[in-house]
Specification:
The complex is a heterodimer of chains A (571) and B (187).
Chain A (H helix, E strand, L loop, with lengths): L1 H30 L9 H11 L9 H24 L16 H12 L9 H4 L2 H31 L9 H26 L10 E4 L5 E4 L4 H10 L20 H25 L3 H28 L2 H5 L17 H14 L14 H13 L8 H21 L4 E2 L2 E2 L2 H31 L17 H16 L14 H30 L16 H33 L2
Antiparallel strand pairs in A: 1-2, 3-4
Helix pairs in contact in A: 1-9, 1-12, 2-7, 3-4, 3-6, 3-17, 4-17, 6-7, 6-8, 6-17, 7-8, 9-10, 9-12, 10-12, 10-13, 10-18, 12-13, 13-16, 13-18, 14-15, 14-17, 14-18, 15-16, 15-17, 16-17, 16-18
Chain B lengths: L1 H30 L10 E4 L2 E5 L36 H17 L23 E2 L1 H5 L2 H8 L3 H11 E2 L10 E3 H10 L2
Antiparallel strand pairs in B: 1-2, 3-5, 4-5
The chains are: A mainly alpha (571), B mainly alpha (187).
Chain lengths: 571, 187
């Protein structure tokens, strides 16, 4: 177990070590300074030319949002039709059929919004064409959308008073050519050299040593796995994601894939510090996030390494922890770290089955997605955290009896209203969805859907409730992991989570950008002795308190019915 | 909206070519140099492919080291875990049945020594490995079945145990397929 704990610590340490210079680099890229990656500039100019874009054209926050939403709509329409007709499109060596319209609706939205909830299994539910031309493509562009949205926020924070916030297309294209594509290429090549398939060869059939005949799914997996880790996408090539021995062949690849989950989200915090030249603010944000992240990791590692109490009662040995749903080459500690990394960042990939986590670990994973701002999804994590900052500034302002200000701009009713609405949106979507599905299970168990409500849950009692709670939480957080026992490929889940996905993605982008845009348009007030300092440790504690209070008030009852009740039932 | 729709469509098309066309082809080309040429690394025994190095397979015969239980019977056309919650009574009954089966096939083993990983299903259903403890506990049975001294098999297990990465990171493991091939080659 010592080697497993050391592995976890080294993995996290390496991620921080790499994130620091990467953050500096990202800030340089978006400031337009010289970097090593300038050799990409001709490619970018070609892309702009072919697309008819003028990257110097300045946009205000509303124009940014229009561009963002328009291109997202284009992707959705394209993805939907490609998924429905994939059976007749090329690159389908295994002869997989097209998706049903409700599944294609869910899948298209899910990948457009960077969530990657998957109500199908990659081996049979997609073709090589849709794996690459829909899924992997959307994994790049949805991540780039998040980064571009964040850069708009950073531009708004940087300037004293302005409406000129740069060009959306430029931010978006550079996110791909300067950050996502180079990093993905490196990771994909490392994976390929460690045994992850990367060719276009179809399923293989072999006779095993014992004489059984089995097939082995393969395909162009390495490139897609790289971007799904780096872009906080999470949708796996194979059904079980990075628990699959071809998707994540060794402890080394597992370390790299874990680092890739949190690398860009952490780097973006440092990038914020360099970009707006307020390193103390970045350090404060990083500190608050890290306190919670490390607390959550420690809890999950403790409970997974300790094992399942119900198995202990059967009288057998659990020296390497709770191993249901886990892989030997990865071990319980690395799976626990991953469970927090993936739920903190809205990644949603898994390297073990979350449905089989012990109760407290499963509950912490859900809570982590409810907060959804510890490092967070690429770009959008900081946007979510920005909302918590605004709320904390507002409450602090009330406490000291002054008009609240953030970075030289007065925070007034309009901005606070937006922040409050965005904060309330998550509990509304999660709890209403869970209540509705629980109602269907109890009162309409025989509803005529592809999977009847009576057969939705893979586990009885408290855990069955957690399966539904997890699904809506994951959809709202645009996370994409699941308690995968849930029978979710039917019209009820495909449609309801589809709408939660859209609202949970775009409102939390629109809200913060609107606030930032409005603030940036206001008169700049130079800081004085009476100004609330937002980069101090005291203010960090204030934000921490806001995060804890908001989430505890909103979610404790639901968590008590699921994971907490299950925990006490197992003692 | 009108101002943005045409750039959006055109940018989408060129990015599809770059990210879904060029990028994976480039990876596939580089992967030609990797072991297995990007098709997955196969394991050959007496000139015949008997499996993939990283993908587990079923071993139920007493003369082989058993693999961990699998929710998909090691058919790597798909993949899957049991997704059973820790307190599910039906699940615990399945685990109990696996313990009973193991004890019946391995007389002399104490229940308290059975490592849980040997009676719980992996996440992928394709776990290629055993923990060293889960291999060691099967040694007496295999020695008996193959009429070989336990010490020889113990040596073999030791030889095929892969320690932590760089000696200090992560768990130790034994690849079941490679161990069983070596077992067949023992004379």
């Amino acid at each position: 177990m010592t080697a497993e704990i050391l592995g976890v610590i080294v993995t996290y340490g390496l991620a921080l070590l790499l994130a620091w210079p990467l953050g500096k680099y990202i800030a340089k890229v978006f400031k337009g300074e010289k970097t090593w990656s300038d050799f990409m500039a001709p490619l970018e100019r070609l892309l702009y030319k072919l697309a008819g874009i003028h990257p110097r054209e300045q946009m205000n926050w509303k124009q940014h949002l229009k561009a963002l939403l328009t291109i997202n709509l284009v992707w959705f329409v394209y993805a939907f039709f490609a998924l429905v007709f994939q059976g007749r499109l090329p690159l389908n060596p295994d002869g997989n059929p097209g998706q049903t319209p409700d599944l294609a609706f869910n899948t298209a939205i899910s990948f457009v919004v960077n969530c990657n909830l998957q109500h199908y299994s990659g081996e049979s539910g997609l073709t090589y064409f849709t794996q690459l031309f829909v899924v992997a493509f959307l994994q790049f562009v949805s991540a780039a959308t998040g980064i571009a949205a964040l850069v708009v926020l950073l531009r708004a924070l940087k300037e004293k008073t302005t409406t000129q916030l740069g060009n959306f297309w430029e931010f978006f294209v550079k996110s791909i050519t300067r950050i996502l594509l180079p990093l993905s290429f490196v990771l994909a090549v490392i994976l390929a050299f460690n045994g992850t398939p990367a060719s276009y060869a179809g399923k293989d059939t072999i006779e095993t040593l014992q004489g059984d005949t089995v097939s082995v799914s393969r395909g162009p997996a390495a490139g897609m796995i790289a971007i799904k880790q780096l872009g906080t996408n999470g949708g796996g090539y194979f059904g079980v994601n990075s628990a699959h021995p071809l998707e994540n062949p060794s402890y080394l690849t597992n370390m790299l894939e874990t680092i890739s989950i949190i690398l860009i989200p952490i780097a973006l915090i440092f990038a914020l510090g360099y970009f707006i030249n307020r390193k103390k603010l970045a350090n404060m944000i990083f500190g608050v996030m890290t306190v919670l992240f490390i607390t959550f990791c420690s809890i999950n590692i403790y409970y997974e390494a300790k094992g399942n109490p119900a198995i202990t009662k059967l009288g057998i040995a659990q020296h390497i922890g709770s191993m249901e749903g886990k892989e030997i080459r990865l071990g319980s500690a690395a799976t626990a770290l991953w469970s927090i990394a993936t739920t903190s960042t809205s990644n949603g990939s898994v390297n073990g089955m979350h449905d089989s986590l012990t109760p407290i670990s499963g509950g912490i994973a859900i809570l982590d997605m409810m907060i959804n701002a510890l490092y967070g999804g690429v770009g959008v994590g900081l946007l979510n955290f920005y909302i918590f900052i605004i709320i904390a500034v507002f409450i602090s302002g009330l406490m000291v009896g002054r008009t609240p200000e953030f970075m030289g701009h007065k925070l007034e009713a309009r901005e606070v209203k937006i922040a409050a609405l965005i904060t309330l949106l998550s509990p509304f979507l999660i709890l209403a969805g869970t209540a509705l599905s629980a109602y269907m299970v109890v009162h309409h168990p025989g509803a005529d859907w592809a999977v009847q409500p009576a057969a939705w849950l893979n586990n009885p009692g408290y855990h069955g409730f957690s399966e539904m709670l997890y699904e809506y939480t994951s959809a709202n957080a645009n996370n994409g992991s699941g308690f995968e026992g849930l029978g979710d490929n039917n019209i009820f889940w495909n449609v309801t989570t589809g709408f939660v996905l859209i609202l949970g993605r775009f409102l939390p982008i629109i809200g913060p950008l609107a606030i930032a845009g409005l603030l940036a348009g206001k008169k700049y007030i130079p800081p004085s002795a009476g100004t609330l300092r937002t980069d101090s440790a005291t203010f960090g504690v204030m934000i921490l308190a806001v995060i804890i209070i908001i989430n505890a008030l909103a979610y404790f009852p639901a968590l008590a019915l699921g994971p907490v009740a299950e925990f006490f039932s197992l003692r | 909206m009108k101002r943005y729709i045409f750039p959006a469509i055109r940018l989408t098309i060129v990015l599809i070519v770059l990210l879904a066309g060029v990028y994976p082809l480039l990876i596939a080309a580089v992967a030609k140099l990797a072991p297995g040429k990007g098709d997955g690394i196969t394991v050959t025994h007496h000139g015949k492919v008997v499996g993939y190095a990283n993908v587990g397979q079923t071993f139920t015969e007493d003369k082989y080291f058993w693999s961990r239980p699998s929710a998909v019977d090691y058919n790597a056309g798909g993949s899957g875990g049991s997704n059973k919650g820790p307190a599910n009574p039906a699940y615990l009954a399945v685990v109990q049945a696996r313990i009973d089966t193991f004890l019946a096939h391995n007389p002399g083993v104490q229940k308290a020594d059975i490592p849980a990983e040997l009676v719980t299903a992996s996440g992928s259903g394709l776990d290629p490995d055993l923990s060293p403890a889960a291999a060691e506990i099967q040694i007496p049975r295999i020695a008996r079945e193959r009429r070989l001294p336990e010490s020889r098999i113990r040596e073999l297990v030791k030889q095929y145990t892969n320690g932590p990465l760089l000696g200090f990171l992560g768990p130790s493991k034994v690849n079941v397929l490679q161990l069983n091939i070596a077992l067949d080659d023992l004379k």
